[in-house]
């Protein structure tokens, strides 16, 4: 099951799992784009279903997991990718209002907690599984000026992931996170007017490889973390950023 699977990293991850032979639940808030992602995965030969859900709502998450199990019989892997929002950026901390701060926490942190709350019992019922939460390089280091709520939520997501991994690692359930850097997506779109130069500068500053990442590169790492090849990795946070998190120049 992949949340936020209608575009970007989520869509690429759904396709990566389908190519590995998994049956995939594509979950997203938007129906039209979710169905388009479903068609894309099926066009590549994958077995998939679309379930519409707003993962910031407890009832939606409960029904999402229940429907996934009803369709495929079990839940073995979950990727909690839904989250990133563009509400309230490029302003110093004190200039955010309470509603904007709450939106970041709800979208990037509470949604993942809600998902794991229902995913974990479903996985334990079948002997275990693997979960990957999608954080950010801003969960590992300070964000740029004007990103305090987003950076706070992603740091908290890293803590949530590590805590859940400690709680359930002894039960054959591995929980890890990835921390992508700037990656091509609808939010990071070089084709928007004036965006190419902005992202060129960001890449030079934030990537040791001086380029944006591709959604497929993040998806491949997620699929590996969920595979048996990563069987002794638990509570880890993997930067996928071209060297940005540790850059010293």
3D structure, described in words:
The chain starts with a strand and ends in a 9-residue tail after the last strand. The strands form two sheets. Strands 4-5-6-7 form a four-stranded parallel beta sheet, sandwiched between helices. A three-stranded parallel beta sheet has the order 1-2-3, sandwiched between helices. The model has no long low-confidence stretch (mean pLDDT 89). It has seven helices and seven strands; from the N terminus they run E-H-E-H-E-H-E-H-E-H-E-H-H-E. It has helices at 8-19, 31-43, 58-72, 98-124, 148-168, 195-206, 215-225; strands at 2-3, 23-28, 47-52, 77-80, 129-134, 173-180, 237-240. It has 249 residues and is α/β, with parallel strands linked by helices. It has a single domain (2-240), classed as Rossmann fold (3-Layer(aba) Sandwich), CATH 3.40.50.
Describe the structure in brief:
45% of the residues lie in helices and 14% in strands. The chain is an alpha/beta fold.
